[in-house]
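User: Hi! Is it possible to get a structure for several chains at once, not just one? Here's what I have:
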Amino acid sequence: MYIYLRKLFAMLATVFLVSMITFITFEIIPGDPVLARLGVDADEAQIRALSEELGLDEPLYKRFFGWITGLFTGDLGQSIRYSRPVSELIFDRLPVTLSLALISMVLIVIIGVPLGILSARYGDRLPGISISIVSQIGMAVPSFWTGIILMYIFGLTLRWVSPGGYTPWSVDPVEAFKSLLLPAVAIALPSIATVIRYTRNTVMEQMKNDYVRLAFSKGLKMNAVLFRHVLKNALIPVITVLGMITANILGGSIVIEQVFTLPGVGRLLINAISVRDLPLVQGMVLYISLVIVVTNFLIDIVYTLIDPRIKLR
Amino acid sequence: MRRILSILIFFLAAFSALSVEKIVVAVMQDPDFLDPHRAAASGTYEMMFNVFEGLLKPDSKGNVVPAIAESYSISPDGLTYTFKLREGVKFHNGREVTMTDVLYSFNRLKGSGEVRGLSSDFEKFVSEIEATDDITVEITLNTLNTDFLEKFIIAIIPADNPDHERNPIGTGPFKFVTYQPGQRVVIAKFDEYWNPDLPLVDEVEFRIIPDNQAALMSFMAGEVQMLPRLDAIQAEILRGRYNLISAEQNMVQLMAMNLAREPFDDLKVRQAINLAIDKEEIIEIVANGYGTVLGSNMSPIMERYYQEGLEDYYKTDIVAARSLLAQAGYPEGFKTTITVPSNYQFHVDTAQVIVEQLKKVGITAEIELIEWSIWLDRVYTGRDYEMTIVGLTGKLSAYDILKRYLSDYPRDFYNYFNPRYDELVNSAIKQTDIDKKAGLFKQAQVLLTEEAVAVYIMDPNFIVALASNLFGYNVYPLYVQDMSTLYYK
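Assistant: Yes, the chains can be modeled jointly so their relative placement is included. Here is the combined structure:
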């Protein structure tokens, strides 16, 4: 129990620090949210009305503590750019980002890990080398480019999906899956390559250990050694990488969302920063830090499941 | 039997759902405000033009025509505007427009008592708003402003709507349905529109696609039926395969030089820069030829007020430019910075061409790319820059275009202070004689050119791509998309 309390405290401290840094950063960087919203054609009267409404002339610490107090009552404040509650804006975007993350994680795990093992198994033979080369390419190609190419092939040429048309799950689940599959593939490809290389390296690393030699000398076959002994030990670092990838995708895949015109959290964050919408950025930062803290916690738990010697401390 | 019937009903329903005629339009950005009195951005007006109407509304020729008002008259002294309301104009909530709504809207703009207004023009010029009977309203100005008529295109909104931002209600041909930030604005046909012939389609979705490339793909895949504001490359890709419409758009793309900074405080330097820049070349390279050379801060589409001939005032002449620079004390040229908002690729490309052109007269210009919000803060409001490139969207009123150079204009980012100019523009709006008024506005344009306040580059063409079965598009000299006349064939 104590351990959970400590984790919770660490989480709160992280979130507090990150929020404070965001507040201060926004104070330092140039750009005015009122002007950013209204643009070059703004009338002085309109600028005055919006400035008064937002109360941005209050000192920084007051606004920061106002925000913190709001947090405890579950109020993330009002977005400057969209005149809507920050929580509403973020929750609207979550289904897209969560489903993107889910689909791409499934792809990454079911493709990346087996191929990595395969590549280690046939390290210096043709399958190993070819997987290695392909994964090298996968890591080098930027995902936005993959995105554009996928869209060109499946959207424009084959017409399997319609580019720029996102359908929510609630409207039509099949269409929703179709509109999310390509972006998920684009997100997954570079990560699949990373996971392949990682799995391959750790598996090969483990193969050098004494217990492997012992297993072989007991007369075990390659596959038995690999799946019964090596894999358990090799998976720990792979899980760490998978955790980092998950947190990354949940934080929003800005470029992919832009290319596929998906209403995910990444585009929301970029918009919020570019128009200096501090309350919205604060809300997003809170969300992202929560995602990271929670994912790390979950990874810790998975460690203990794989290797009982590891204990949460 | 019942089963067959229900299946039949299902198919009928499905069929009627299919037969909803819908146009998806790609737009670059979110609206700033849905509340029409608080909205300032051209990109918002572009969409909400279809939802809101004023007593008057602009037509595609750039004139204002009666809308909620049936007719209007202006008193001989030019100070009092009298409007008669059209009978039976309804708001989207089905209620008829009454005098209460008209007075409410104008008072909201002008401000009343403690509450400040939302339009500085109404605050500054309007002295009295009075209903003489149920259908007649008189608006009296405190000082003559013959460009004020155009102001009455501002939306009339219902006095009893508690939230104009979340639930905007107007009288236009389309009613507001939904706005999902970062995704779409949807509007639908208003069945009780006062002009029974319009609109022709059932629904319009403005889909927010900030990425150019993604918008183009969506259009080519048929997901989007109308793609406005194409750039030259996109137009080239679509040419021949789709219906493209191209026209002047009443925009002024210019390069401002900070007149409060050395060396731009020297007229000779500004003239030299004007002589060094080859606008034809810029149009050729950046806009693929789709643009009109400008000579001052006015597009030729503003026929009545446009001063001809200024576009040739500075013919590209490297020798003359060099000698002017030498006279100004810069025989070797100088180093400077062109600050450009990075989200406008068009201006960034223009800056790159200008850098090359300025090299020929010895001026080394460096491009500084900054975020739009920083540009607004530092350049536009803070006037902290050396040179910058921006496009200013057109207005119906020549005064609204030229007032940006007035000494007391709060966003005179050129730092141009010339009493003679102020005099010309301010006295133009006191002229009831249209020719004399046009004459004064023209003189003001000449002054801007002679003083080389900026380099007036071009009015880039507006190019829109339409699905091949979509017709009825009207080009406006304003930043709007009139969806009411579009139809499928």
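The domain at 89-274 of chain A is CATH 1.10.3720.10 (MetI-like fold). Chain A touches chain B through 48 residues (CB under 8 Å).

User: Great, thank you!
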